[in-house]
Design goal:
CATH architecture of the largest domain: Roll
Shape: elongated
Order of helices and strands: EEEEEEEEEEEHEHHHEH
Number of helices: 5
CATH class of the largest domain: Mainly Beta
Largest sheet: 5 strands, mixed
Structural class: alpha+beta
Radius of gyration: 22 Å
Strand content: 25-35%
Distance between the termini: 25 Å
CATH topology of the largest domain: PH-domain like
Helix content: 25-40%
């Protein structure tokens, strides 16, 4: 198989890093990692956040975390930072590199675990945060309607206001669905783009 290279700058303070796949290892200027020493390859995406009528407030990205037997990890991302607030989405090159990595790791190290989905701690943070937000919105709407109904002050205007508030639940509930799809699971599919 031909060697394959991926370059990425992960943050504004980082330098551009170059990773190269050979038949037996992943190489970078500071070292190398034989596929036989890889314990886990995790591929996942972090969803972006859209705010209604304000547009995108946070961009989504794709990530690959390669965990070694020692517990150390190498992290790759599809975001290549160019300058402050300016980055390039390198998803096509990222998925090509990670697909080749997964294929070579499966061949050289069948014991390595290939998974998709966020790391459990990150997943639980996102899921509980937006789950709590959705629950608080639901309770606020339900208690507000109940209070107005018991006071017999449930006019058409207040009913429309609570209906609009209920519409705001679409955001957190939609985000919860997106987070649910990003839970950890074994990656059996060859189509990484669809799996993450």
């Amino acid at each position: 198989m031909p060697d394959l290279t991926y370059q990425v700058r992960r943050s504004l303070v980082a330098k551009t890093e170059e990773y190269t796949l050979t038949d037996t290892a992943i190489l970078w200027p500071g070292g190398s990692l034989p596929f036989a020493h890889i314990k886990t390859v995790r591929i996942y995406s972090v969803p972006g956040i859209w705010i209604y009528s304000a547009g995108r407030s946070a961009f989504g990205s794709n990530r690959c975390v390669i965990t070694l037997d020692s517990g150390a990890a190498i992290q790759l991302t599809s975001h290549h930072y160019l300058s402050l607030g300016n980055f390039e989405d390198r998803s096509p090159a990222f998925f090509q590199f990670v697909s080749a990595l997964v294929a070579r790791v499966r061949t050289a190290n069948p014991a390595a675990r290939i998974v998709s989905g966020m790391p459990p701690m990150l997943w639980w943070f996102w899921f509980l945060s937006f789950g709590l937000l959705a629950l608080l919105l639901i309770l606020s709407i339900a208690l507000g309607l109940l209070g107005l109904t018991l006071e017999h002050k449930n006019s058409l205007g207040t009913s429309l206001l609570f209906l609009a508030l209920a519409g705001l639940l679409i955001g957190p509930i939609g985000f919860l669905r997106a987070i649910w799809r990003r839970r950890t699971r074994d990656l059996n599919s060859g189509d990484l783009y669809r799996a993450v």
